[in-house]
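Fill in residues.
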């Protein structure tokens, strides 16, 4: 069952924002998302939290500055998702601009798995680095850091994932979520952490007057990468992250971006002058992620690193092709998952926490399958695929009410030999188990999920921003909303109204096309992947969308949910 709930909108916050010159609609939306003062509206670069407030950033800057002065070789070990790729590109571009000898490696998802593992260190050792840097990984790489130190490498971890009880013995750890770090923005993505380290390095080199050739690179030119990785990793858009995303989008809209990002906008058919966070997450980020899911993320990183527009376009086209292949694989896996779910007991504990496995599933796409099943059934879901040597690699997605990483921690405490490795966040996590342990894990995870989730948590809830007047459902309003930064933790506006149905038909045998009326005004609406007949009067939750066709633009309602009014 799905319920519609209007968000709480504190009147005092609305008044304070309106008094600062914010439009009545935006004041209402911002207040409902926790903004209370005009200061929180400042998305300028100067409002960014200072690098010195991030624990380890200063120490990392000193170590890297010493390495640059000594001509030491550095190697960045990246992650194979969009956040890892953008973090790597930020590090490579900035460090090379500072005069560093820096290279990168990214592990193969299937053969090496996630993070700085000992085998990954052995591959890095062939490049003879004196400094090893991780981006978007490393906080759980205890054995990998030990191996790197045994090779005589200095080690710098830049990560944002939640740490375990024991930290790696690295020379420096930069992670806002490590114990003792007072950095207010705990939601920095991996690319955000690396950007902060580069800001600290620039400050350190300023003090030493050692920037290359007396010139100092403009790190703000990397904000398109920071915005992309931040949005694609679906981290909470707190004030600091909204600054990073807003600044990156502003630069993209005026054409100040890496050639690779420009090329990715081109192959996805998106208009850079009207770039939104939605474009970054679903159009650009998905194409980069496709490389890490079913091929080699080096393709994505090279696309972000090249300054050659022709090469960037060639790589972007290859990423676009991989994304098409990824979608086909995902559709097949979702259908298999649907068939598996038909055997589940909807009233049992197993159905509270879903665990899915099929021997032929692609390990790079299981996270997407888990996400789609979670969205469809509103249940925490973990999908597994076969790894190597009898192991299963799992990727999980959760719902509000269940902190997935903590739930896996409870599983390991109750059955210490059940989970080989795990890590992640509240809403997403990864893990590895032995294949023969799958039935035991399924039971344990189902039991934990059932104990932590209340029946109310299992009801899908759509939070809305209340109704709009017919006059407010307009192209002008849609454009106003399009210019703002929305995302995880600062969700895009969803409204709800009671509409009369004037016409309805099915598009392409899959989607519902409607003509609705409100207050005598008619509006076009679409409900994707829905073919059910709609009653004459509905209560609908919807988003405003701009539909463009043959040079004409009009507002269109994208229905999230509806029921008979």
């Amino acid at each position: 069952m799905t319920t519609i709930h209007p968000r709480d909108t504190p009147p005092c916050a609305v008044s304070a924002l309106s008094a600062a010159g914010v439009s009545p609609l935006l004041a209402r939306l911002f207040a409902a998302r926790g903004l209370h003062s005009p200061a929180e509206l400042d998305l300028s670069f100067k409002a960014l939290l200072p690098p010195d407030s991030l624990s380890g950033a200063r120490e990392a800057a000193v170590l890297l500055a010493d390495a640059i002065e000594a001509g030491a070789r550095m190697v960045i070990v990246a992650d194979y998702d969009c956040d890892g790729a953008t973090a790597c590109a930020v590090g490579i571009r900035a460090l090379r601009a500072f005069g560093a000898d820096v290279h990168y490696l990214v592990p193969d998802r299937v053969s090496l798995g996630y993070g700085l593992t000992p085998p990954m260190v052995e591959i890095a050792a062939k490049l003879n680095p004196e400094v090893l840097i991780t981006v978007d990984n490393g906080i759980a790489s205890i054995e990998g850091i030990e191996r790197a130190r045994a090779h005589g490498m200095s080690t710098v971890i830049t990560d944002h994932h939640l740490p375990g009880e024991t930290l790696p013995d690295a020379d420096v750890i930069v992670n806002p979520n490590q114990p003792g770090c007072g950095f207010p923005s705990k939601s920095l993505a991996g690319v955000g952490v690396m950007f902060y380290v580069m800001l600290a390095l620039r400050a350190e080199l300023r003090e030493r007057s050692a920037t290359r050739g007396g010139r100092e690179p403009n790190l703000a030119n990397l904000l398109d990468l920071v915005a992309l990785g931040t949005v694609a990793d679906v981290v909470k858009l707190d004030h600091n992250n909204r600054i990073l995303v807003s600044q990156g989008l502003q630069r993209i809209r005026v054409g100040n971006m890496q050639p690779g990002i420009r090329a990715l906008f081109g192959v996805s058919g998106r208009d850079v002058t009207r770039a939104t966070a939605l474009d970054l997450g679903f159009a650009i980020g998905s194409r980069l992620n496709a490389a890490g899911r079913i091929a080699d993320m080096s393709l994505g990183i090279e696309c972000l690193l090249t300054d050659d527009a022709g090469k960037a376009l060639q790589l972007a086209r290859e990423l676009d092709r991989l994304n098409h292949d990824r979608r086909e694989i995902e559709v097949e896996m979702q259908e298999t998952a649907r068939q598996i779910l038909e055997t589940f007991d909807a009233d049992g504990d197993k159905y509270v926490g879903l665990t899915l496995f099929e021997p032929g599933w692609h390990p790079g796409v299981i996270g997407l399958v888990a996400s789609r099943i979670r969205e469809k059934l509103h249940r925490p879901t973990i999908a597994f695929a076969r790894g190597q040597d009898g192991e299963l690699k799992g990727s999980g997605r959760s719902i509000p009410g269940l902190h997935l990483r903590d739930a896996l921690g409870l599983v390991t405490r109750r059955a210490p030999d059940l989970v080989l490795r795990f890590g992640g966040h509240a809403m997403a996590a990864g893990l590895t188990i032995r294949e023969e342990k799958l039935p035991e894990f399924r039971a344990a995870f189902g039991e934990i999920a059932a104990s932590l989730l209340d029946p109310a948590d299992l009801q899908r809830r759509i939070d809305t921003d209340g109704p709009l007047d017919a006059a407010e459902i307009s192209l002008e309003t849609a454009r106003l909303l399009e210019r703002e930064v929305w995302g995880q933790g600062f969700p895009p506006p969803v409204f709800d109204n009671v509409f009369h149905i004037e016409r309805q038909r099915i598009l392409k045998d899959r989607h519902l096309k409607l003509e609705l009326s409100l207050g005598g005004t008619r509006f076009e609406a679409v409900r994707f992947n829905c073919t059910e007949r709609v009653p004459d009067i509905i209560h609908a939750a919807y988003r405003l969308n701009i539909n463009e066709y043959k040079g004409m633009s009009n507002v269109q309602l994208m229905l999230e949910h509806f029921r008979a009014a």
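The chain is about 40% helix and 20% strand.
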